[in-house]
């Protein structure tokens, strides 16, 4: 028994035949379920890695709104416990030293207002930045590191749009569209705009999160209270929230690319919008034919170069080419041969007895 029979067919019911409406409906439901599960798993995996990497607040065992005095007090207690000098074996000494350096880095970062601002928004990467001292410096470097991500995505989306790979998710034309020119305008103005809209919202949220002196109200008033109240999940820092937003957005785009075809309205038979006569595909074929014609003209001009200025030779060459085409292409076609045979038979009607019959080739 295959997985389709287990997941889509009830016990005792006959298995639908491939291609039947019931079979296609079941396959559609299974496909949607697999994509949704993939989306949820990807979000869970991204959150798992965020929790696994941790943050300075978790390393010190302190809440995210802790003040400087409590940070120093907590570090002194942890340093007294995990100081490398208290390790017995060399291996324990190396591990204790690594952990102590991590605690010291957390204490130094969170007790400095400027570094704490940068850490909350840009994560541990800010520790590697050079020649930065003020809040403005950290913001400028952070935005410079974020800019290429959005620029690369926009270029990628534009290239996909130009090549026609973003046809899924297209807005449906309004019922008032009657002419082909109106339909073209609607498709060009509305096609795939929701992706750019979502991406613009993501960029605006990230810019607000990284540049404001306070945490995002969405984090402090909605998301983090829900996480800490309903689950054991620690509060998200702004840089963790941004990383999850990036991952969720990318996964959502991929999932919608697979799901959009299932939710698209069916195209009625004989409709001018049928995929067989898709305007964009016709434009591609037309462009390809034009390019082929240009290249053929160049090759023909190159072959005729030795006869430039020799009008008689050119006319003789054209005649020979035309005769070759007629003899080897037109007359060899089965339909042409059949038509010529029927025409000759009609001419033979009423011919005198003993007249010679011409054989067509």
Quick summary:
The protein has 14 helices and no strands.
What features would you describe in this structure?
- The chain is mostly helical.
- Helices cover 69% and strands 0% of the residues.
- The protein is built from 14 helices and no strands.
- Helix 4 packs antiparallel against helix 5, helix 6 packs parallel to helix 7 and helix 7 packs antiparallel against helix 9.
- About 8% of the residues have low confidence.
Task: Explain the layout of strands and helices.
Blueprint: H1 3-8, H2 21-53, H3 56-60, H4 68-82, H5 90-110, H6 113-122, H7 135-163, H8 180-190, H9 193-211, H10 217-230, H11 238-263, H12 279-303, H13 311-330, H14 334-348
Helix pairs in contact: 2-11, 4-5, 6-7, 7-9, 9-11
Described by strand count, sense and barrel closure, the largest sheet is:
none
Uncertain segments are: 168-191, 269-274
The number of helical segments is 14
Please give the radius of gyration in angstroms. Answer: 36 Å
Could you tell me the strand content as a percent range?
A: under 5%
Distance between the termini: 61 Å
| Strand segment tally | 0
Q: Helix proportion of residues, in percent?
A: 55-70%
Structural class: mainly alpha
Mean pLDDT level: 77
Encode the helix/strand succession as letters. HHHHHHHHHHHHHH
Dominant shape: elongated
């Amino acid at each position: 028994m295959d997985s389709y029979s287990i997941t889509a067919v009830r016990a005792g019911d006959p298995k639908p035949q491939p291609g039947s409406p019931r079979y296609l409906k079941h396959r559609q439901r299974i496909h949607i379920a697999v994509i949704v599960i993939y989306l949820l798993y990807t979000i869970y995996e991204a959150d798992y890695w965020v929790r696994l990497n941790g943050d300075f607040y978790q390393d010190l065992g302190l809440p995210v709104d802790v003040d400087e005095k409590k940070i120093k007090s907590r570090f002194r207690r942890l340093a007294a416990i995990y100081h490398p000098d208290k390790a017995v074996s060399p291996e324990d000494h190396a591990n204790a030293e690594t952990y102590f350096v991590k605690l010291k880095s957390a204490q130094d970062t969170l007790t400095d207002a400027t570094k704490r601002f940068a850490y909350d928004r840009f994560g541990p990467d800010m520790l590697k930045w050079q020649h930065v001292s003020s809040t403005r410096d950290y913001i400028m470097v952070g935005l410079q590191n974020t800019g290429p991500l959005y620029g690369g995505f926009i270029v990628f989306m534009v290239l996909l749009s130009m090549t026609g790979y973003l046809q899924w998710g297209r807005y449906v034309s309004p019922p008032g569209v009657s002419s082909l020119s109106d339909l073209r305008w609607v498709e060009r103005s509305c096609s795939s705009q929701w992706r750019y809209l979502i991406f613009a919202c993501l960029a605006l949220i990230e810019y607000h999160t990284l540049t404001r002196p306070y945490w995002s109200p969405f984090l402090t008033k909605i998301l983090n209270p829900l996480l800490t109240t309903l689950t054991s999940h620690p509060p998200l820092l702004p840089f963790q929230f941004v990383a999850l937003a990036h991952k969720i957005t990318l996964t959502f785009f991929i999932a919608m690319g697979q799901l959009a075809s299932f939710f698209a309205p069916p195209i009625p038979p004989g409709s001018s919008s049928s995929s067989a006569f898709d305007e964009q595909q016709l434009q591609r074929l037309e462009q390809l034919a034009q390019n082929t014609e240009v290249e053929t003209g160049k090759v023909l001009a190159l072959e005729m170069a030795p006869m430039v200025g020799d009008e008689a030779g050119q006319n003789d060459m054209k005649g020979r080419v035309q005769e070759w085409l007629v003899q080897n292409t037109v007359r060899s076609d089965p339909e042409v041969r059949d038509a010529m045979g029927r025409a000759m038979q009609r001419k033979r009607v009423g011919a005198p007895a003993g007249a010679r019959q011409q054989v067509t080739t």
